[in-house]
Amino acid sequence: MVRYCSLRKAFVFGITAFVLTHGLIYMFFDRIFSRKIASTGSEVRQFIEIGTQTHASFSRTLSYRKDGNVDDLSVKTSSHSCNPPDIVVDGIPWPDCITKMQWMQDNAASIKCYGTQGVRADDNCSILKYLSTQEKYCPPLTYENPKRSAYFSEAKCSPRYDFRQLYYTLSKSADYSWIKHRISTMESMWTRATKNLFSNIPALDKKRIHIHLGLLTTGIGTSAWKGGPLGELVQWSDVIASLHSIGHEVIISYQKNEIAFHYSKYMKLFSTSSTCTPKSVYEHRNIPFDIVYTDINGYNVIKTKLGDRAFQPIRCRCRIVDSFGTEALFNHPPYRDRLGIAATQYNGLDVKLQQFNTMFPHTPDNTFLGFVTEFPPDISAQTGQTQDAKKIALVYGKSKEFWRGKDKYLKIVSEYFEVHATVAGVERLPRFVINHGLVNRTVLAKLLSKTKLFVGLGFPFEGPAPLEAIQHGAVFLNPKYAKPVSSLNNDFYKGKPTLREITSQNPYAEEYIGEPYVYTIDVDNEKELRQTLSKVSQADSLPGYLPREYSVLGMLERLSVHVDKQQFCNEIPYAQNHSHDLEKMRWPPIEAMRCISSYPHVSKSCNDVCSSAGLICEPTFFPVINRIESFRGFDHEFPCSRTAVPRIQDTFHPSFDRTTGKCYVQINPRLFSCSGSGKNHYRICPCRDYVRGQVALCKSCGPGIG
């Protein structure tokens, strides 16, 4: 039974202040993550109860030892009444605010630049104002009505139907050649879909966008012509074409020295050795880009080239294309280290989880960016095949290494179908296989038009080819694994920042498409294999099927909304006691939210909770429910004897612990997670609806969508 929280109780009551007394708030910050605190001889408990007493007019500071533990608790008086804020303000955690205030108290007087920006070490008001408005470590002192565009220009996008300037840019290096070729073969599709999009949506704010393709430094751009991996290049091609078509101002780069050129004016603001971040940096006109699309390699390069101070204002503007996704336990360094996960260049980026953009909708914790599998109509028309002519099986695997150990499996397939392949180079394949070699997109479309069965070999994982085959009416034979594959047991996923388990070669096809287009079976089970092959061979041919989210129009819809609506540089509080204009900045809109509990099931993630109700978890709503009123909406299930914040931070808060009778709020914004689950914990979950065939968007996410 689905348990919904009471919106009247949870979201109409005024905001209850989360006041932490007795100075023990400090034990929750990242730098003292799971450490012990000695406090005037009293034992520190595993939770701190939320009280109602306000802070006195002084700030509290801690003395740290070299090992990171705390020796004592000292009190430093202040001449003003600007008290340290609570750790959770209007549902939003601010875990670094107090420690930053302490650092400023101890160091601001000796650093000249702070004085020039109005900061006094003995004045909490000036410190708090600086940390709120400049470095953004503390909550805003007041919530002013924000402008609709938190970026540069008030200009609007004009759709582009001319690609010549884009092709000129992509002609500057051979590493762009495959991307340019893919876009050019699909140009008419982008033009047609863009006209369709702009006939149904209001004007979009024009953004300055930097696309930095760090992966091209590996040579993948040229190896693609020789049978190298294409998945990431496909996605990047479609991102570039989408942003160009929508009309944004786009700069493309991939070499390290290009970063210095594109950020040269911005870097002059940091020409001094000052510790302070220049005040002018946070003026929008001085930040070179509204959004930066890059990959993990590119993110690390940009960060290194700019340096920590200059990169800080850019960090929240990054959208990281990350094919397989990043989970909370790999993203936040203190949490990662506590769990004993080794640090690598691919984890510990410590950004908001939705800044990671994935190829498939693996988890709503990340943003589903996607790609296009749609073929141009003119290519499809050239195939000239009827559905009755579909008689062949095409093997999914262009590298001979994918075929190892599959001879028996493929021999059985050959008893039901004529087997074809597109293996790169001159390879010795089984005698019953007709190999066409590496083919271009036009030839592939012709082959797929004759294909009744697209044969998976178990690898590569989660690629785009099965969706292309299904678009042509082929049935995908999707190998099921005897044991789920993850980074814990497979070299391909090893080192990737996710513990997600996949049960078949293409989980998206298994979960979102299914029969009759997808048969997920144990291909080593000869009886099951033969039954499936017989069923497919005797069945009528299927019409082509293309999920909307993998069409050109679907890609444009999704990316136009994400670029226009998503923002990671400002926190949007629950606006009950604030201006309604704040709520207009929230995306998805709060009207789409459904608050559901996991009761009576413990150890259940919000992904599972929302899915069981036919919804999807929406992490942007976590701050809305990260408040005591949300628990009160579940009085019959969560009889909280007291409300608490945890000593040990985890990914399953906010939640109710049935063993202690306490309701826990989340105190670290990096650990808001749809996938987290805790033993003996009932989760409260922010869910939303979604458009059929466009899971990234809710039904009220924008005009023309749905």
For the secondary structure, the number of strands is: 25
Largest sheet, in brief, is: 8 strands, mixed
Computed Rg: 27 Å
Mean pLDDT: 83
Structural class: alpha/beta
Number of helical elements = 25
Number of structural domains:
4
Span of the ends, CA to CA: 28 Å
Report the sheet-strand fraction. Answer: 15-25%
Anisotropy-based shape: globular
Instruction: Please bin the fraction of helical residues.
Output: 25-40%
Q: Unreliable segments (pLDDT under 50, ≥5 consecutive)?
A: 7-80, 148-152, 381-385
**Quaternary state, please?**
single chain
Question: What does this protein structure show overall?
Answer:
This protein starts with a strand and ends in an 18-residue tail after the last strand. The chain is 29% helix and 16% strand. Strand 5 (88-89) and strand 6 form a beta hairpin. It is of the alpha/beta class and 706 residues long. The strands form five sheets. Strands 1, 2, 20, 21, 22, 23, 24 and 25 form an eight-stranded mixed beta sheet that branches. Strands 13, 14, 15, 16, 17, 18 and 19 form a seven-stranded mixed beta sheet that branches.
